Amino acid sequence: MAKLGNATAVAKGGNVKMKVVGGLILAVIALIILLSIFNFASTDANRIGLHYGGGVIEDKKFKSIIPPGSTNKLIGPGDKLYTYPIDQRSYIIGGAGADTDDADEVTVVSKDNVRLGIRVQVYFTLNRDAKVLQQFHERIGLKTEAYTTEGWDKMLQAYFRPQIDRALAAVGTDYLWNELYNNEARKTKFQNAAATKFTDILAAAVGDDYFCGPSYNGTNACGELSFTIQKPTPLDKGIIDGLEAKQRAELAKQAQEQKNQQINVELQSVKQQVALLGSQGYLLKSAIESGKIQFMVIPQNGNVSIPVPTPTATTPR
Fold it and tell me: Can the keyword Transmembrane helix be found in this entry's annotation (predicted)?
């Protein structure tokens, strides 16, 4: 009977363990099911999220904005989150670190029909107004997949580059090539005009002010995009060589003119002295000043010793 009792106790203990293990397995399965049903959204500190419905029984439409730096925000099963950058961004044409080829540049024709190559840097931020951002995502972001790194670069190439070319071409014909090449004030004016033109035509091309200036923080005015150009350079290098030769000739001319002015001043001085002293008097004065004639003051009724110059001995060759 004792052996039978022990066997029964062991059987009961085994059943309890099985029930505990079974309960744990069911709990894990339930947790997996819950996690698959519910969805959580998180965003980095420099990215803003757009929450869209994606469930089986609901429309795939915009639901809410997920602020930057959010962690584990509960969203519906099957819902999607698209994130976009809110920090300062750039689009650079040409040079080290460019978004295009290093040798790339925008070609502009000046007022005097000289073709110039220009490298450009544009700095901006994305407009984070909820309605504007939603519109940007649905019109442009989805098409270019701008919520991804590769898609963002693709979007900039598709929408920024053509408008930069247009803006520079539009204002370039107001300036002579050497003004843009040599005159910093005119270059700055050209750059500012291009920035204004680019901001306007970009908004018209994409449909709204989706892009703001680099100082935009989400609460202030959108502002104008920052537009910087490097020194415009003629594509025909012979033009630069000609300009440098012309500048050298101009400098030589100025030097000769200064020399001629100095000679004229000296001639006028000689004429005035001749008129005052007479020709012989002027020659005597010049000889004294040059040391060819020694001039001495002899006191009246005084004895004067005049040193006789010692002739310089010459060594026969």
Answer: yes
48 and 115 belong to one structural domain = no
Q: How far apart are CA 195 and CA 214, in angstroms?
A: 13
Same domain, 68 and 166: no
Find all residues with CB under 8 Å of 177, minimum gap 6, and list them. 110, 111, 112, 114, 116, 232, 234, 239
Distance (Å, whole) CA 297 – CA 305: 12
Two tokens at 78? 């099957």
> Are residues 129 and 48 part of one domain?
no
The verdict on pTM exceeding 0.85 is no
Q: What tens digit of pLDDT does each residue of 101-153 get?
A: 888 999 999 999 999 999 999 999 999 999 999 999 999 999 999 999 999 99
Claim to verify: residue 211 and residue 117 sit in the same structural domain: yes
